Amino acid sequence: MNRWLYSLAIVLPALLVAHEAAAVRNPDYLSERPLETAKGARGRLVRPVEYQPRPAAAASWQRFLAAHGSWTAVWDADTGVPLRIAGEGLAVPGANASPVIAEAAARALLEEQLALIAPGSKLGDWQLVANVVHGKGDTMRTVGFAQHHDGLLVQHGEVSFLFKRDRLFVIGSQAVPSVTAPKPAHIVTGTEATAKAIAWITTDYQARPTLLAEGGVSILPIIRERGDDGPVIEYRVVKTITLDLDSPRAQWDVYVDAETGQPVARHQRLMFGAGTLKYNTPVRYPAIMRQDFVVPFANITIGASSLTTDVNGGFSYNGAGPASVFASVTGPRARVSSNGGNGATSLISIPDAGSGVWTGASTPTLDAQLTAFVHVNRIKAFAKAELNPNLSWIDRQIDVTVNIPQTCNAYAGYNELNFFVSGQGCENTGRLPDVVYHEFGHALHFNSIIPGAGASDSSLSEGVSDYLAATTVEDSGMGRGFFAGSSQPLREIDPPVGETTWPRDISPDPHATGLIIAGALWDLRKAMIEEYGAVDGKRRADDLYYAILQRAADIPSTYVEVIAADDDDGNLSNGTPHQCMIAAAFNAHGLLDPQSMLGIGLVTRDGLSFAFDVTTPALDCPLASVRQAYIEWRVQGVSSTTPTTFSRTGDRFAATIPAQPDGTVLQYRVTIVLENGLQLIYPVNPADPFYQLYAGPTETLYCTDFESDPFAAGWTHSASTGSDDWEWGAPTGEAGELDPPSAASGTKAVGQDLGIGSNRDGRYRDNSFETLTSPVVDTTGKTGVHLQYKRWLSVEDGNFDQAQLLVDGGTVWSNAAAANTQLPVDHIDREWRFHDVALDAQAADGSVQVAFQLAADGGGSYGGWAIDDFCIVAQRTGPALPVCGNDAIETGETCDDGNTTSGDGCSATCVDETAPGEDGGGCCSTGADPTGALLLGVGSVLLVLRRRRRAARA
Q: Which of 355, 522, 616, 893 is deepest in the core (most CB within 10 A)?
């Protein structure tokens, strides 16, 4: 089933200011993932991140902090490996000047922290691939290592160490953990491997590619998209076959099984561009003012002499008077050809000490050659002078092909740029300097990466290439003139409303996802210019942009690389000169840990009263403060909501919903609006966008918190198809945000594959039909009967997988099913959610029995049901509800020790924990849900969707 996690991109869209979707995208025929698998579950779209370690890494992380002081980390949520660790640094005298000292220090720390940085690997698995100085003034040094296993390279497995001022202060890890890949019995021949790779592409694209290169044998980690089948990480021993397809235009590294030659996965090597335009500026496209540009580094001929113009387009020759110059679009830094043919030439008469002009204004195919040649040389000159004067690739000749007989696109390779002719309403892309700069940005990125540290992530590359074009032309509207007759930009990286944020705006199109980092860089550029002026501010921002090109692995890793480049003492724990400016720009695009960056505390509820505190952020930076906060609430079953605004007293925000009649079920959501316009909205679950609460006292008919074995107390479970995955015990969070990391109360819960048993991955199985059934509960003579429990449910859209609550065999609740199956609304709670269901109709016959059921289709599996604090209650009338924790044993209590703490002999619900056969209390909060119930953590899941949420109570 070819569906991706739309929940990443559809987070409460109706409540956020929308902006037009970017029109630039990969061609429709290349709708592929960064790693497109041949069969089975897909490779992940992006790297999800968290800001706290997984339980398996917690001990290693604490040992690291105990040994080395103040550091923070961003964690790969799929692998559990720290993507970036940054902090106060370790003194390494002489490291920046000496590659030997730096390598020794890096190896020593790698050996010491191997279990943290690269769990499951051995020190001998890591081979040095880079030891280079870089940065403005060569102030930094990176030592990079590539991962191997049993002598084979592990694709994309890297570890790096960054030094500044003789301090090791950033560690980067794209290591993959616990590699297991047995060597094949024999290696497939190149002929057979190539034939099968070609057959795969031919079948998918109805066109036969040609072989470019046959690579060696390596290990390919396939990190799966969450919710798909199979292990999170699969390791395959593969052979790489590089194929090129002329029409439709594409180029792949195809990974085939090293033993059988069967296709495993492929990676698209080319970076494409296309889209719509939004507004007009001069000297950007053919419809507006043209300018005579000097032509640097062009090969020319005067008589029998072959010359090359200098950086200012100048040349000298023997003799006096006008010169007949045979000009070309070839030079030492660029060679332009027209659709595979030779580049244009022209004989131009140039007066002595004067100038001559070659124009192609009336001939688009010639104009494309001249424009591409001039602007490739201009952007190369900028890159060499301002970004990296030591990058030798800039001085090498790059192949530029224009007038390719396709339309509405352009693409780049490692040392090639390609542009299409006009047609279908699109301009010839070789005539658009913006597009030339953008495509050059890809090649610059590819060739700037420091091995062992950075990576050519497609979304990152699109974003930084957009920024390069925008900063070069001084306009955030990138690509004006792309569509003939239009002045609109392809993409606007600084929209007037609706900034793109991570992860809300993650898209299968890397151009759209790239707008997140492009926008952050542009906001930083604006702030730098405001602080330092147009020239110096731009230069400072561009320097930080280039640090990303060299060392960032993807968009989530960019912030650490920017502050590392900005740092002045090799110690990130004391801040950097512009850290607050950088943090503000990146935070506005969801690229920081918002809980620590914004200083917004947890929202708590006491009955119908809500509150949260704001504190000074960890960085002590004046980031976006809270402008306002409000609760939207309604009685369940009513469509309209009533807003109640939080009032502020000092650092506390508080709000109270008006009193409600006993037995009322309310729905509510909380919105916090920041000064920069960003909205934090809870809950974050488009399939179930309101929390619930029950007002009034209740009488308990049956309650369990699952601290004792439910299956010994009358609960049953089964699977009519597939495997029976129901488990009881302490949840492990095995499936990340799709599974609870702990119980809602106490230590235990019941659910589908909680990660407790062996060979567990936290997910339900495909094509399974599983049921958990409660004991029969007596409801004789009771009215106002409700089911109240806590759930952590993650399941695909109801069109594909159905999670249902059944009472006495009839369905009383099921997960939402989208009207459009192409835009599914997956149900992912990401926290413990209180759920109330009225059962009067079912209870009228004197008993109820509840069943939790899940029916899964043949593709895509999530965490399924997790259940805790299960109660059947009735509306209470008569004497007041006993107050647990007042040190007085009242009707309905078996103990009261003056507190509501479980585990001390008297439970949180005043049940004697020492009495034989008791559940031990701590079951579901009924009635008004007394003081201290944790509502939600506002460390914005809207901004950091993949971060594991703290447990919520409602």
A: 522
